[in-house]
Design brief:
The protein is built from 14 helices and ten strands. The chain is an alpha/beta fold and 373 residues long. The chain folds into two domains: 170 residues, 3-Layer(aba) Sandwich (Rossmann fold), CATH 3.40.50; 114 residues, Rossmann fold, CATH 3.40.50. The strands form three sheets. Strands 5-4-3-6 form a four-stranded parallel β-sheet. A four-stranded parallel β-sheet has the order 9-8-7-10. It is globular. It is an enzyme of class 4 (lyase). InterPro entries: ACCD_DCysDesulf (IPR027278), D-Cys_desShydrase (IPR005966), TrpB-like_PALP (IPR001926), TrpB-like_PALP_sf (IPR036052).
Amino acid sequence: MAGVTATGVVGVPSTFSSATAQIGGFLSKKPYAPPAWATHLSPMPSHTFSLGHRDDLSGMQLSGNKVRKLEFLMADAVAQGADCVITVGGIQSNHCRATAVAAKYLNLDCYLILRTSKLLVDKDPGLVGNLLVERLVGAHIDLVSKEEYGKIGSVALADLLKKRLLEEGRKPYVIPVGGSNSLGTWGYIEAIREIEQQIQQSANVQFDDIVVACGSGGTIAGLALGSRLSSLNTKVHAFSVCDDPEYFYDYAQGLIDGLNSGLDSHDIVSIENAKGLGYAMNTAEELKFVKDIAAATGIVLDPVYSGKAVYGLLKDMAGNPAKWKGRKVLFIHTGGLLGLYDKADQLSSLAGSWRRMDLEDSVPRKDGTGKMF
């Protein structure tokens, strides 16, 4: 089996890696063969780790779109002999939580630099949502204020921690915000291959447009690049939830330039602003929308990414009906369910009702016992 030796995958205990690799290939390290239409892109990844299922169906602790990127990034970390990984994000970052879990699966230490408010930076961050999972799996957490983050930047912060770890004799591997670099972009090039295969297997399914939330740029770069190069050639629409569209056009351009694609981001993706009050901040109307979608369909959107993207999409459909009339749209749910827990107080007035069951004293017991279970 590729990547497994007598001592196991590098960084993974042999008994664990061998056993899990036999269960659907989970955690197996595999040589990577790109889609035929992407073989001209470079640099080409050499290997990938099988870390999850897909997007919103990939489970709880290791879920969301970040898993696709981590399959390539973690393979590179292990190939470079890293014994720990560093990444950066917001206090409820889905990417940081997924990285912490993936690192633990691969027997790597994980260091997270998390951005929070100035009022909370010196306090225990608590155990809500993504933080609970990160701390349960033993991630090392360093807090910085939003002001410090804005002044220093994510790259410099990660480099500072990397320098300190190197001085301690560690071998750190830095993963950028959201896992969004040119290597991570391959995760969503691969996603387009899956969509292409699914369409080929279901002859009656076709899409005119793909819609997705945009928070760090890697997902839209991979989707847009893959869609243009593949047989799909489907228009990709992104709804940005933090920075402005022009920032993401430029950032995505850097990612696709890093793969020597020769394409212009403005030609392969359309980006709309859906950040509203700001990153991870919601209006009452947006939260009510998330609740209404869940109550109507059973589909739970997260308030930070997919919720804002669908909200923005439907507003655009209402404001520009001719643009969307008759078109079939594939919306990609990028996970992030744990982010809902951070909004529990704001959602409490919107959630389903409850009541104390009315029990009559005369109701006879049916089980014939007086035991409590």
